[in-house]
């Protein structure tokens, strides 16, 4: 069941006593598990209302709410140099579960192409990610979200590669590359940290040269910190990547992870494998074709880099 923006606005007025809804808008890019809208009240405050579409999404929302509550003290004391959503009200749903409402946070989605080297926004992103990865893992554990040790996470990655291989749609040389990296035991000696695990430009808000907020914490876990760096290493301008990593490493207390960047690049490559598997599971020929095209392009890029190295 998909709820209309007006139905979501009605839920917001139940969740926040006294909220006088003036306008409502559905944001772009919402996922398949939640109905979401931005409600503007009579004094122009903006509220985000999220309602789960099924029981599993409802359980995930409850875990996310618990995590956000645990993160709040770290935001308030400055340990985390950015805001996170603060749930301010709930509305019970007729089918069970509840919708959650929070104030819309300040900032705009990061545009990677605007990043520049030096002590500006790129360095602030590195600082923000380092602060996230320095949090005590208990905040995730107590919210009931997944916790992996290094060996268990390596096994998870191996299972993804095995499943992708069974589709017969991954270039064989890419599979060999991934297998070699997974078999390199030294690469997988790392200290698991709190990770957001779904960092994208849409989930990282910026304003005036700094990170203002991080959104959508439902995939958070204790796992490999390289996962939160992978999208930046793959897509950001290289000179900005250098600034991000320098700032990040300066603020991390874990300094014995020489393969962090290697695992981050692997995580970026395996994101294509997961996109392929999503297409296969949902029987979407369009997604499968898109994933195969990107995997082929990646394979060609890896070959070109290897040849240039000789």
Automatic annotation (TrEMBL):
Keyword Kinase: yes
InterPro entries: AGP_Transferase, Aminoglycoside_PTrfase, Kinase-like_dom_sf
Membrane-crossing segments per the record: none
Domain Aminoglycoside phosphotransferase: 35-249
Keyword tags: Kinase, Transferase
One of the record's GO molecular function terms: kinase activity
PANTHER family: AMINOGLYCOSIDE PHOSPHOTRANSFERASE DOMAIN-CONTAINING PROTEIN (PTHR21310:SF15), AMINOGLYCOSIDE PHOSPHOTRANSFERASE-RELATED-RELATED (PTHR21310)
Full protein name: Aminoglycoside phosphotransferase (APT) family kinase protein
């Amino acid at each position: 069941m998909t709820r209309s923006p007006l139905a979501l606005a009605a839920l917001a007025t139940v969740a926040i006593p006294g909220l006088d809804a003036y306008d409502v808008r559905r944001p772009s890019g919402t996922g398949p598990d939640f109905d979401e809208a931005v409600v503007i009240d009579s004094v122009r405050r903006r509220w985000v209302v999220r309602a789960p579409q099924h029981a599993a999404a409802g359980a995930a929302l409850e875990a996310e709410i618990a995590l956000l509550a645990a993160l709040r003290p770290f935001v308030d004391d400055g340990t985390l140099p950015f805001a996170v959503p603060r749930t301010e009200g709930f509305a019970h749903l007729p089918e069970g579960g509840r919708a959650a409402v929070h104030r819309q946070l300040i900032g705009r989605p990061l545009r990677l192409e605007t990043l520049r080297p030096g002590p500006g926004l790129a360095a602030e992103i590195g600082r923000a990610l380092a602060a996230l990865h320095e949090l005590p893992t208990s905040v995730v554990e107590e919210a009931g979200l997944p916790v992996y040790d290094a060996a268990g996470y390596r096994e998870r990655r191996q299972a993804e590669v095995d499943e992708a291989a069974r589709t017969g749609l991954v270039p064989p040389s890419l599979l060999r590359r991934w297998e070699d990296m997974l078999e390199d035991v030294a690469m997988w000696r790392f200290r698991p940290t709190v990770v957001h695990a779904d960092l994208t430009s849409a989930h990282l808000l910026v304003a005036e040269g700094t990170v203002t907020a991080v959104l959508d914490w439902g995939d958070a876990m204790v796992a490999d910190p390289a996962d939160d760096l992978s999208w930046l290493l793959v897509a950001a301008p290289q000179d900005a990547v250098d600034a991000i990593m320098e700032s990040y490493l300066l603020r991390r207390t874990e300094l014995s992870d020489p393969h962090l960047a290697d695992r981050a690049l692997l995580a970026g490559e395996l994101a294509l494998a997961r996109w392929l598997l999503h297409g296969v599971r949902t029987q979407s020929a369009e997604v499968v074709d898109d994933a195969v095209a990107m995997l082929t392009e990646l394979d060609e890029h890896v070959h070109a880099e290897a040849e240039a190295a000789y």
